[in-house]
Design goal:
The chain has helices spanning 23-33, 54-58, 79-90, 162-176, 194-201, 203-220, 245-260, 280-295, 302-307, 313-329, 364-372, 376-392, 409-413, 415-426, 448-460, 477-482, 492-500, 505-518, 530-538, 583-601, and strands at 37-42, 47-52, 95-103, 120-129, 136-143, 185-190, 227-231, 234-239, 267-272, 333-341, 347-355, 403-408, 435-440, 465-470, 487-490, 521-524, 543-545, 571-574, 577-580. With 602 residues, it is an alpha/beta fold. Strand 18 and strand 19 (577-580) form a beta hairpin.
Length: 602
């Protein structure tokens, strides 16, 4: 039953609002309500009274809200979330900024401000148990635009950037974590043929399309404020279950035909913010992984992501748990590939390469997955621990043997993980000079200064450090300006191009010249034959790695002694050092032996 005037000791009338009790309650309530719409409800959602900007938000006078059921104010697609929010508040929880859509009453008359094209008003609901009245709730509805962090930078079309999108998506995930409804979706959109369409339709038509396209993304998104541009023709939006990726593709393509007179061939894929058997934090990590893969330069397109579809966050979390279990249980092996001095043929060191399950399978996808989900720090620590144990074991104890372990820039960017890593390295003083590290990263390092500080601590403890895949992707020249290292490993794509067509030779020359001037050693990877090795020697590359020198190997521990497991047809011990023997040298030795044998026989 609605509160009657004679039930209240003191009455205050605020505009068209229902009567509210004690004056100090009204002031407190409106401070909380930010001058939008304040409601008091029973635990089951029956509205007792309302006060504030009811017409602009719900399209009804506040006095008519009394005795309504709260879920009935919202679109049918949002009502299960409203019910879940009521349950959470009834259990004593405070909710903040649940993004919903008011269903406007079906009547003629002026439309409230801020309505979307579908006849609803995007709002945010906050609330908590009433501090003075047991069994009641205080709720506030605000225009959603006031709570979507307007300080975040948006482009000229009103689309937010990656950081704002990730933060808002994380908020929605946490809101949905305890719910039983179908949840929100994140749809990733790509316009792969935008450049061709621009050439065909012209700049003016393209600008009009982009404006309408951005407006469509905003209108379709939660609260009309939850769409983003990631660059490179990639976009994202957050929305409810009433919209699917096929409908979004169709709408975009129809828009392109109408405005530009050409096909856009847009691609869209949706991820459900489900909460089945996963925590909110796990769901956020899965979200970040998906965004990392989609937005990075080396990440997947919508088409590629759809082939390996993980349409719900819980599926990605399942993969995360599998990788985490693999790391925790040590279910991986270290293989070792030689890096050879091109000037002397001495094996300078071995790179430690991780292998999961099938030894012949590439670990790349698993390692990138660990990077993008925040698990790479634990992986780095596990690999480093295993390498230290190996170097102290019988097979890795020979003093001429040096080993390089890969470290992700994301591990060094985390103060907690960096501290654990430094403690581990600090316990390996007996391996000074023999244990080396290479900084590897598939995405840009945001804080180079902090990472450099960690690298200098590692170097200060006697462990050389290098940069992996230099010249490709994020490992660009500015790394050498910010990071003081002992060597760089030139990305294999330069080596391949230099051999195939010579196009990258000027870049090789520039990199090696820079390394010489900075007194940094250079390492080239993907060396497949003697001709490539000779070419790199001419260009003053000091060290080489590739199948020409040897494939990654698992030392044969069953052989007697610590030296024997490292011997292969191409690598032999001589004068206490491991030397690489080229196929030509091996063939020449064989020919000489045959000549000596024939001479002896005669």
């Amino acid at each position: 039953m609605a509160t009657e005037p004679d039930d209240i000791e003191s009455q205050t009338d605020w505009g068209d609002g229902a009567r509210l009790g004690q004056p100090h309650e009204a002031y407190v309530a409106f401070a909380f309500a930010a001058a939008d719409l304040l409601m008091e409800c029973e635990m089951n959602g029956r509205v007792i009274f309302a006060i504030g900007a009811a017409m602009s938000l719900v399209g009804r006078p506040a006095r008519l809200l009394a005795n309504m059921e709260l879920p009935d104010l919202f679109l049918p697609s949002d009502r299960s979330r409203v019910v879940n929010a009521l349950k959470r508040m009834a259990s004593g929880e405070r909710i903040r900024h649940v993004l919903l859509h008011i269903q406007l009453p079906d009547e003629n008359g002026p439309e409230p401000q801020g309505i979307d094209p579908h006849g609803s008003v995007p709002v945010a609901m906050s609330g908590y148990p009433h501090p003075d009245h047991e069994g009641r709730l205080l709720l506030v509805l605000t225009h959603s635009g006031t709570i979507t962090q307007p300080s975040l930078r948006r482009n000229d079309e009103g689309l937010m950037g990656r950081d704002g999108f990730e933060a808002l998506a994380s908020t929605l995930i946490k809101e949905s974590a305890d719910g039983e409804d179908d949840g929100y979706r994140m749809t990733l959109v790509e316009l792969p043929s935008l450049a061709d369409a621009r050439t065909e339709a012209g700049t003016e038509a393209t600008a009009e399309f982009m404006s309408k396209f951005s407006g469509y993304l905003r209108d379709t998104s939660v609260g009309g404020q939850s769409a983003a541009e990631f660059g490179g023709g990639k976009y994202g939006l957050l929305h409810g279950p009433e919209v699917d990726s096929d409908a979004i593709e169709t709408a975009i393509d129809n828009l392109a035909k109408a405005i530009m007179g050409t096909e856009m061939r847009s691609e869209a894929a949706s991820v459900v913010f489900d909460s089945s058997s996963i925590s909110a934090q796990e769901a956020v990590s899965a979200l970040v992984y998906t965004l990392n893969r989609f937005t990075s330069d080396s990440g997947g397109t919508v088409s590629e992501m759809s082939k390996t579809a993980r349409p719900t966050l819980s599926n990605t979390v399942t993969k995360m748990r599998e990788v985490k279990a693999t790391i925790g249980s040590g279910q991986f092996e270290l293989y070792f590939q030689p890096i050879v001095d091109l000037w002397s043929n001495v094996v300078h060191h071995f790179e430690c390469l991780v292998r999961f399950g099938d030894a012949g399978a590439s670990p790349y996808n698993t390692v990138v997955f660990a990077e993008d989900t925040g698990l790479v720090g634990e992986l780095d620590l596990a690999i480093c621990t295993r390498a230290i144990e190996f170097m102290r074991g019988s097979v890795g104890t020979e003093l001429p043997l040096r080993f390089a372990v890969n470290l992700s820039g994301r591990s060094l960017s985390s103060p907690a993980l960096a501290a654990r890593l430094l403690r581990l390295i600090g316990s390996a003083n007996d391996l000074r000079g023999r244990l080396m590290f290479e900084l590897t990263e598939s995405a840009a390092i945001s804080d180079l200064e902090a990472v450099n500080a960690v690298l200098q601590e590692i170097r200060g403890r006697g462990h050389p450090v290098g940069i992996d895949d230099f010249g490709s992707g994020s490992a660009a020249f500015h790394y050498l300006r910010a990071l003081k290292v002992d060597h760089v490993k030139i990305d294999g794509s330069y080596v391949k191009n230099a051999v195939q067509n010579g196009e990258s030779l000027p870049f090789l020359r520039a990199i090696t010249q820079l390394c010489r001037e900075l007194k940094i050693a250079s390492v080239a990877e993907h060396i497949e034959d003697e001709a490539t090795s000779n070419l790199l020697r001419v260009y003053n590359v000091r060290y080489g790695q590739g199948y020409y020198f040897g494939k990654p190997m698992l030392p044969a521990i069953k052989k007697m002694g610590a030296k024997a497991p490292w011997v292969t047809p191409q690598v032999q011990w001589r004068n206490g050092l491991l030397f690489f023997r080229s196929p030509g040298a091996i063939a020449a030795d064989g020919a000489n032996r045959r000549v000596d044998k024939n001479a002896s026989a005669s």
